[in-house]
Amino acid sequence: MRNYIALIHKDADTDYGVSFPDFPGVVTAGLTLDEAREMAEEALAFHLEGLVEDGDALPEASTLESVMADPANRDGVAILVAWKSPAPKVVRINVTLPDDVLSRIDAYAAENGLSRSGFLARAARHEIERENAA
């Protein structure tokens, strides 16, 4: 799940407008605050799903401090809008491992409530993140 900051704006005799500082041009509105928030979730999901389909990287969310440091944003009320990314595609692979390593993987996975695949995916993520952090 990712959270992005949205800004709600309200002028006299207007609907509640919503904009996303991380996504200029992504705007929506609602008659009520609840409707504005619902519309914000839909607008964010639509935009992010389009980025994913196009193979574009999703930007890191701005911090509240950086959003509110912009004088143009100070008349808005900041809210967090969540996007639940679609489940990743699962692919079956064939891997060859020494039997002693496989036995250790299976024992560790069983002791920790993981499947073999779950353990291997977790180990791979750990190594990739460790490498990227270095």
Automatic annotation (TrEMBL):
Superkingdom, natural source: Bacteria
Name listed for the protein in its UniProt record: CopG family transcriptional regulator
UniProt-listed GO biological process terms: regulation of DNA-templated transcription
Pfam families recorded: HicB_lk_antitox (PF15919)
Residues in HicB-like antitoxin of toxin-antitoxin system domain copies: 4-124
Species this protein is from: Rhizobium tubonense
InterPro entries hit by this protein: Arc_rbn_hlx_hlx, HicB-like, Ribbon_hlx_hlx, TA_system_antitoxin, TTHA1013/TTHA0281-like
Database matches in PANTHER family: ANTITOXIN HICB, UPF0150 PROTEIN SSL0259
